[in-house]
Amino acid sequence: MCIGLPMQVIGLQGDTALCRYRGGDTLVDLLLVGAQPVGTWVLVFLDTAREVLSEEKARQIADALEAMHLIMGQHPIEQSQIDDLFADLVGREPPLPEFLLS
């Protein structure tokens, strides 16, 4: 399985960019999305940017990844911790379909 990571461009180097996610820096190929200015958020799969993201979308993806990290961890977690990471879905209108509520 390949999971896309939201990364922020922090430096440019030709057709690649130095990007940051969770404090780690990675050299990312920009050929599929074109040159991007410093500060841009991109969705990265296997060190290749596949999509340009808004800051809000990047945060939502990072929150979902953090929820997955918490769920897979060894420590007990509270439902509120997960709800906080999916604030855009909790109490939203229209409500989630019944099969997604359980």
TrEMBL record:
Pfam families: HupF_HypC. GO terms for molecular function: carbon dioxide binding; iron ion binding; methyltransferase activity. One of its GO terms (biological process) is protein maturation. The keyword Methyltransferase applies. InterPro entries: Hydgase_assmbl_chp_CS (IPR019812), Hydrogenase_HupF/HypC (IPR001109). Keywords: Methyltransferase, Transferase. PANTHER family: HYDROGENASE MATURATION FACTOR HYBG (PTHR35177). Belongs to the HupF/HypC family. This is HypC/HybG/HupF family hydrogenase formation chaperone.
